[in-house]
Write a structure and sequence with these properties.
Length: 410
C-alpha cells in the first residue's frame, strides 16, 4: 500500500510540472505575437505595440484616420517585426516643366508626383524641391531640364548635359584647365542657361624685328624760275629705314593679330622738293629780252598781251607815279588775300578789282600783273599812287619807293 501511495504522489507531481510548462509556453507564444510599429503621419511619429495584420488595422489602432486619396506606405512594414508605416496625405501641387504647368492632387513625395504624372527625367535634370520631399498643399515643383554643353579645347570636343552652373563649372567637368592669357568664350563666370559651345583658345606670343622702308614725302614749291605748266625736282627724295619690333599673337597656333612694340629710326628719309612753275607764259618775251622776272605771283588774265618789249598790247590808259611797298597783312579791304600782286590803291582812282600791269620807270623791276585789292594808308597823306605787296620785308627794303608806270588793262 505504501508503494502505491508513493507512485500516486509522484504522478501528480509530474502532472503539475506539465501544467506549469504548458502555461508558460502559452504566455510566451502570446507575447511573441506583439510587435512594435512606428507610424509617421501629419508631420509627427507615433509608436504602438500591436498584433495587427495590415497597415490599415495599425492606423486604426493608432487612432489615425486615412482619407480618400491618401497613400499608406507599407514598404517598410513587416508583420511580426518591429517596422514602420508612413501615411501621406493627398495634396494639391503645381508642377512646372519649362513653360508647361500642371495642377495635380496626389499623395506621397515629389518623386511619386513626377512618376505618376508621366514625367521622364534625365539623370542631369534638376528637380526642386528634392524627390524625397513630402507633398503639401500649394507646393510648387520645378523641373529644370538639362541642356547640351560642348567644350572644345586643344583640338578635342566633349559634350555634357547640365541643368545649371557656369562656364567655369563646365570646363572643370571636362577636365580643361586654362590660363588668364587664354581666350575662353563665353566668359568663365557666365551662367549656363541653354545649349552652348564653349571654346578655349590657347594664346601664345612671338616677337620679331624687321627693317622697314620709310617713304619720303614730297613738298611742292612755286618757282619764278619756271613758267606755269613746268615742273622740276630740285631735291630728290630718298627713302628712310626704321627698325620695327612687332609682337604677334597666336591662338591655337594661328596668327590672329600683331602689335607694334617699338620703332627705332635707322636712316632718316630725305624730303623730295618739286618746283612748280609760277611765271605766266605771258611774261616770256620780257624775261627773254630783259632777264627781269615779275614780282607778282598772280596769274595774268586773258586780257594781258605783251609785245616783244614787255609792253601790254591792250590797255585803255597808262599813268605814272610813286609806288611804295608793304609785306604785312592777311586780307585786304576787298577780301582778297594779301599776296604779291594784290595791291593797295586809292579806290577812287582804281576801284577794287581793277586789273593793272606795273613796271618801274627806271627799267630795273617788273612788278607785273596786279589787282586793286586794298585801300592804302597813303590815301590820306597822298604820299604815293599805289602800295605794292611784297613777298618779304627784305624785298620791301630793296624796293624802297620807286616811280612806276601803271597800265590799266582793258
Amino acid at each position: 500500500m505504501a508503494n502505491h501511495s508513493h507512485r500516486k504522489r509522484r504522478f501528480v507531481a509530474i502532472l503539475v510540472v506539465l501544467a506549469i510548462l504548458l502555461s508558460t509556453t502559452a504566455v510566451i507564444a502570446a507575447a511573441a505575437d506583439v510587435f512594435t510599429v512606428t507610424i509617421a503621419a501629419d508631420g509627427q511619429t507615433k509608436t504602438i505595440e500591436t498584433r495587427a495584420k495590415s497597415t490599415a488595422d495599425i492606423l486604426a489602432e493608432a487612432g489615425i484616420e486615412s482619407r480618400p486619396g491618401d497613400l499608406i506606405d507599407g514598404s517598410e512594414f513587416s508583420r511580426g517585426s518591429d517596422s514602420r508605416v508612413t501615411l501621406y496625405r493627398a495634396a494639391s501641387v503645381r508642377i512646372f516643366d519649362g513653360k508647361s504647368e500642371t495642377l495635380a492632387v496626389i499623395a506621397g513625395t515629389v518623386g511619386r508626383a513626377l512618376e505618376q504624372g508621366g514625367y521622364t527625367l534625365r539623370v542631369e535634370d534638376s528637380v526642386t524641391p528634392a524627390a524625397e520631399t513630402v507633398l503639401t498643399d500649394g507646393l510648387e515643383i520645378k523641373i529644370t531640364r538639362a541642356f547640351s554643353v560642348k567644350v572644345t579645347a586643344d583640338g578635342k570636343t566633349q559634350e555634357f548635359w547640365l541643368s545649371s552652373g557656369t562656364v567655369k563649372d563646365a570646363l572643370k567637368l571636362a577636365g580643361v584647365a586654362y590660363k588668364a592669357t587664354d581666350e575662353v568664350a563665353p566668359n568663365p563666370e557666365s551662367a549656363l542657361t541653354k545649349t552652348v559651345e564653349i571654346t578655349v583658345g590657347r594664346v601664345t606670343y612671338k616677337t620679331r624685328t624687321v627693317n622697314e622702308e620709310v617713304a619720303f614725302t614730297t613738298s611742292k614749291r612755286y618757282s619764278n624760275d619756271l613758267y606755269v605748266g613746268e615742273t622740276k625736282i630740285s631735291t630728290k627724295g630718298v627713302a628712310g629705314v626704321n627698325k620695327v619690333t612687332y609682337k604677334d599673337k597666336y591662338v591655337d597656333g594661328k596668327k590672329t593679330g600683331t602689335v607694334k612694340e617699338s620703332t627705332v629710326e635707322v636712316k632718316t628719309p630725305v624730303e623730295q622738293v618739286k618746283l612748280i612753275g609760277a611765271v605766266s607764259a605771258a611774261y616770256r618775251p620780257v624775261i627773254m629780252k630783259t632777264g627781269l622776272k615779275p614780282i607778282s605771283v598772280l596769274q595774268p588774265s586773258s586780257k594781258l598781251r605783251l609785245d616783244e618789249n614787255g609792253i601790254p598790247k591792250n590797255y585803255k590808259s597808262v599813268v605814272e607815279g610813286k609806288a611804295k611797298s608793304y609785306s604785312i597783312g592777311s586780307y585786304g579791304a576787298s577780301g582778297r588775300a594779301c599776296v604779291p600782286g594784290n595791291i593797295a590803291v586809292d579806290p577812287r582812282q582804281f576801284p577794287y578789282g581793277t586789273e593793272l600791269y606795273i613796271v618801274s620807270t627806271d627799267g630795273k623791276y617788273v612788278y607785273g600783273y596786279a589787282v586793286a585789292s586794298d585801300t592804302g594808308l597813303f590815301v590820306k597823306q597822298q604820299s604815293c599812287m599805289v602800295d605794292l605787296f611784297m613777298p618779304s620785308m627784305a624785298a620791301c627794303i630793296n624796293w624802297g619807293a620807286r616811280n612806276v608806270r601803271i597800265y590799266v588793262l582793258q
